[in-house]
Design a protein that fits this description.
Blueprint (H helix, E strand, L loop, with lengths): L1 E5 L3 H13 L3 E5 L11 E5 L7 H10 L3 E6 L4 H9 L4 E4 H6 L1 H9 L4
Parallel strand pairs: 1-2, 1-3, 3-4, 4-5
């Protein structure tokens, strides 16, 4: 499954990219703001990033029927709450994206937005 990674942190983007590849997915890393969003069933957004207008990004992706997974640090409760308010389809801590990504993605593989 193709997965968009909206990640401007070089270490996180590479870690998530490698994890997705190991799980048999096709990661597409997007590290800078763009108006063009590739087609994909799922996107993972770093809610701690200041590179994107998170609300607009979520809205644009969901308008294209892309499921949105937002992630932030477990102590960044305000960012996770913001992701919830903005309509992320799933919220995860950074730890969950590291250790439970396969299970998280499985929730979306058989669904249509």
């Amino acid at each position: 499954m193709r997965v968009l990674l909206y990640e401007d942190n070089l270490m996180w983007s590479e870690k998530l990219r490698k994890t997705l590849l190991a799980l048999g997915h096709e990661p597409v890393v997007i590290s800078r703001p763009t108006k063009d969003h590739p087609e994909a069933p799922v996107a993972i957004i770093n809610l701690g990033s200041n590179s994107w207008d998170i609300a607009e990004l979520i809205k644009a992706l969901q308008a294209r029927s892309t499921w949105v997974i937002g992630h932030a640090g477990h102590k960044e409760k305000e960012k996770l709450e913001y992701g919830k308010e903005m309509g992320c389809d799933y919220l995860a801590t950074n730890s969950e994206t590291t250790f439970k990504l396969e299970a998280i993605l499985a929730k979306f593989e058989s669904k249509s937005p």
